[in-house]
Specification:
Elements: H1 10-29, E1 36-40, E2 46-51, H2 54-57, H3 64-76, E3 85-90, H4 94-102, E4 107-112, E5 137-139, H5 144-158
Parallel strand pairs: 3-4, 4-5
Antiparallel strand pairs: 1-2, 1-3
């Protein structure tokens, strides 16, 4: 295997995404859209986890990213998540992209792109907007086919007639 200096953390990103995919599967089992997220500290340790819970909790903010960011902030004992990476199976929506910016997360790693509500480059680009108070590096397409498949399969099951 050759070392790519432009992508030195690729294997770690894929391993973190594996955990996010497990959380996404848990969300689907509970009837929520299968999105999972983890927050990883500068040493590569997962310090926050989340999965979609909107349906379960009846909470419009029950997005995987929000829950993972809250969990990480609690673990760190502060709201600033400097040096952390947010890893999520689906491109964050405007609310979640904004939360990542406000939490000072320097990097978002995402699996599947969201051409309808994505706010990290697909529809909007909140993390890299020049007007943002903090800029976030966005790395997309990590385990994209697996992340996309989980979403397609979930929505196909939702459309099956009784």
């Amino acid at each position: 295997m050759t070392h790519d200096p432009a992508r030195p953390r690729r294997l770690e990103e894929e391993a973190w995404m594996a955990r996010a995919l497990e959380l996404a599967a848990d969300a689907a089992t509970g009837g929520d859209v299968p999105v999972g997220a983890v927050v990883v500290d500068a040493d590569g340790a997962i310090i926050g986890e989340g999965r979609n819970t909107r349906e379960r909790d009846g909470d419009p903010t029950g997005h995987a990213e929000i829950i993972a960011l809250r969990s990480a902030a609690e673990a760190k004992g502060e709201w600033r998540l400097d040096g952390c990476t947010l890893v999520v199976t689906l491109e964050p929506c405007p609310m979640c992209a904004g939360a990542a910016v406000l939490a000072r997360v320097p990097r978002v790693v995402l699996g599947a792109w969201d051409p309808k509500m994505g706010a990290c480059g697909s529809v909007w680009d909140i993390p890299r907007d020049r007007r943002s108070v903090h800029r976030v590096e966005v790395i997309g397409g990590v385990r994209e086919s697996e992340c996309s498949r989980a979403l397609r399969e979930f929505f196909a099951r939702q459309r099956v007639p009784d």
